[in-house]
Amino acid sequence: SQISPVSPNFSSRLLVITSRSEEKLGVPVDVLKPLRINVNQLSIFIDKYLSHRKVRHLFSDDDYFSACKYLATLVHKSDVTPLLCKLYAERMISNKENCLSIPTPKGIPELFMEYLNQINSGAGQAKVSDLDVQRSVKIVAWECLCASFYPQAASLENIVKSLSNANVKDPRDLLDYLERRLKLIVTVGVTRDQIDFNLDPLAEYLAALHVVSNFDAAS
């Protein structure tokens, strides 16, 4: 409501808005839509990403093309989002730089769990366990999607209640950890009473995993 290009008091000459839905502003706009990466172009994207990170030299051609081929198999040869390719490339880099031998992910959900583990590993000695982070952040993600199945800010009170019902110890401290240390979520709202995700696609994947895990537990 504060963005009104037709208002004489609106001083911006150039305005860029990022949104997952096409906003109606009442004036002509140029809409740019990011494209998914064609499965046949995965190796090109990852090559450029590794070069940008200045680590392409760490990978032999055999290792590099083998990793790209496995990613294509992992996504069942369908087009993918840049985020998924980025997570996979970061996993490749982490393995090489830290001389690790992490088992190849069996699916996309496992790749996202590895991403959570990776950022949690940089939290220092005071870090929360990987399993507690995974379980808690999936609950938060579901609260951010359950109302409309679309990522949006959720009530802090409802999230704390859901975490408490799941026997999460000190829910507010946990939320502070997810926000300040891991940068996964952000507190929003005029009265700071809502929680939102920094990455909408991550929220969608985690919420789906939460629902699936509940079904598995009930069966």
Protein topology:
Blueprint: H1 42-52, H2 61-74, H3 82-97, H4 108-121, H5 130-145, E1 154-155, H6 156-165, H7 171-181, E2 185-188, E3 194-197, H8 200-218
Antiparallel strand pairs: 1-3, 2-3
Helix pairs in contact: 1-2, 1-3, 3-4, 5-6, 5-8
Give an account of the 3D structure.
- Helix content is 51%, strand content 5%.
- The longest helix has 19 residues.
- It is mainly alpha-helical.
- A 3-stranded antiparallel beta sheet has the order 1-3-2.
- It has 8 helices and 3 strands; from the N terminus they run αααααβααββα.
- The termini are far apart.
- 23% of the residues are buried.
- The chain is globular and about 60 Å long.
- A hairpin with a 5-residue loop joins strand 2 and strand 3.
Instruction: Measure the end-to-end span.
Output: 46 Å
Structural class: mainly alpha
Number of helices in the DSSP assignment:
8
Based on CA atoms alone, the radius of gyration comes out at: 20 Å
Query: Spans with pLDDT under 50 lasting ≥5 residues?
Result: none
What does the main sheet amount to?
A: 3 strands, antiparallel
The total strand number stands at: 3
Mean residue pLDDT: 86
Strand order, sheet with most strands: 1-3-2
β-sheet strand percentage: under 5%
Shape: globular
Report the helical percentage. Answer: 40-55%
